[in-house]
Write a structure and sequence with these properties.
239 residues; hydrolase activity; 4 strands; Rossmann fold; single chain; AB_hydrolase_fold; alpha/beta
Length: 239
């Protein structure tokens, strides 16, 4: 799903993408935890012999990239935080997200709910995910098309891994963020169904931070590729 990002940034950096433990082409073998995933990311870095890297994370990956940077600031040159949900408690934004999700699903809401509430076949898993992902795009006319592209090729979703990570209670990161000296770029889509106000406290906490808001949904590189490329490549180049 991040192939377009890799292509866009290939001129600005050597790009390495990885399938997290239990996801994509990686083996579905736990344990699943934030701590373990941070360690896995460090193992990928060490495998390539890179002393320091720039990190770009999207959505949950933005949280992961932030947690890695807080754990290993000496190993990160720059952090790009794309469409994350900030450092506040989920209770401050999740209800609004659920409302926005249902509203964006529109005519597909009943089908999505019926799939959500029953045991699904592999084919129905894919349909359920495509419907849910379609809510992440501001352009409703192309939303299903974009979501179908995210599911091609289809490796399935590891719902066990997802549930395990979501069960973890996030620590208060504000104090650590206030002392983080790694330059950070926050990139948002203004039409993201996850309220962007949830990221405001992260922006206030970070001492070296800039923020770019694009007219897009949860995947801003899909709906504003030029704006995304300009913001991220410029940040990585230091311009």
């Amino acid at each position: 799903m991040m192939a377009d990002v890799a292509v866009s940034l290939a001129g600005a950096a050597t790009v390495c993408r990885w399938d997290q433990r239990g996801c994509g082409r990686s083996q579905r073998r736990g344990p699943y935890s934030v701590e373990k995933t941070v360690a896995d990311l460090d193992a990928v870095r060490a495998h390539f012999g890179w002393d320091r890297v720039a990190l770009l994370g999207h959505s949950w990956g933005a949280q992961l990239a932030l947690r890695y940077t807080l754990a290993h600031p000496e190993r990160v040159t720059k952090l790009v935080y794309v469409s994350g949900t900030g450092i506040d408690a989920d209770s401050t934004w999740h209800a609004a997200y659920q409302h926005n999700l249902r509203d964006a699903l529109g005519e597909h809401l009943a089908r999505w709910e019926s799939l959500r509430d029953r045991d699904r076949t592999a084919e129905e898993d894919r349909e359920y995910c495509v419907l849910q992902w379609s809510a992440d795009f501001a352009d409703r006319e192309r939303a299903l098309e974009h979501a179908e592209a995210m599911a091609d090729p289809w490796f399935g979703v590891n719902f066990e891994c997802n549930a395990a990570l979501n069960r973890e209670r996030s620590p208060d990161l504000s104090g650590q963020c206030e002392t983080l000296k790694v330059p950070t770029l926050i990139v948002d889509g203004t039409a993201d169904i996850r309220p962007r106000r949830s990221v405001d406290s992260l922006e206030r906490a970070l001492p070296v931070v800039s923020r770019v808001q694009l007219v897009a949904g949860h995947l801003p590189w899909v709906e504003d590729p030029t704006g995304f490329h300009t913001a991220v490549s410029g940040f990585l180049a230091g311009t």
